[in-house]
Design goal:
- The structure is a single chain.
- Helix content is 83%, strand content 0%.
- It contains seven helices and no strands.
- The N and C termini lie far apart (61 Å).
Length: 217
């Protein structure tokens, strides 16, 4: 384990962007495999209640989907994430004392309001187009998935990033984020694979109720 850590440190020092690109691609691939396994187990449990013979249905990895998700990690998360955290730190550091409340809060807000929605929108759009869906279908899928993803992810990521920006040195912030991206990519892939799940309909229904209440006020 120490050798692996030393190798990572050396790679990060010598080839920072390349190291983040490769690690992001690998972690997003693992995340998608995890999402497929979760979806398979969920569907199997649901069908088992109706048909016990489906209980032992073999789990097969969709390698095409893994490749699509992994390529998003390679092409976007790795390089863009590297420069995002680097320049975000430089920008905020000029305005606030490092590790102060305003310093951390500004980073968390910028990450959640700027990078987060961009990352989600591009992920769902890319996966849809790369899977062969039409542009109109992709638009509908993004509208369907992005609000639930933002709502559910917004519960976890602020806490993750507060710890990141407060306690983790800038040099290792990307590694910290990439480790959580393993869970995040699994989470996003799982949401995308859920399609028109019933639980997703709660979000637009809730939004509609709020709009109706405002119009009646």
């Amino acid at each position: 384990m120490r050798r692996l850590w030393r190798w990572y440190q050396q790679s990060l020092s010598s080839y920072p962007v390349r190291t983040q690109v490769v690690s992001s691609g690998i972690l997003w691939a693992l995340g998608d495999i995890g999402a497929q396994a979760v979806t398979h187990n969920t569907v199997s449990s649901h069908h088992h209640a109706k048909n016990p013979e489906d209980k032992d249905k073999e789990f097969k990895i969709d390698w095409k989907r893994v490749g699509i998700t992994s390529s998003f990690g390679f092409a976007f998360v790795g390089p863009v994430g590297h420069y995002w955290y680097e320049y975000l730190d430089r920008f905020v550091r000029r305005r606030y004392l490092p590790c102060s409340f305003k310093f951390v809060a500004s980073k968390v807000a910028a990450d959640g309001l700027l990078f987060g929605p961009l990352d989600l929108g591009l992920f769902f759009s890319y996966v849809g187009l790369a899977s062969g869906r039409s542009l109109e279908q992709v638009k509908e899928d993004v509208k369907r998935d992005i609000i639930p993803a933002l709502a559910l992810g917004g519960v976890i990521w602020p806490a993750v990033q507060i710890a990141n920006f407060r306690f983790i040195p800038v040099r290792y912030q990307l590694l910290y984020v990439n480790l959580f991206c393993l869970l995040d990519s699994c989470f996003l892939s799982w949401i995308e694979q859920q399609g028109d799940a019933d639980w997703k309909q709660w979000f637009p229904s809730f939004q509609k109720k709020i709009k109706d209440q405002k119009s009646n006020a």
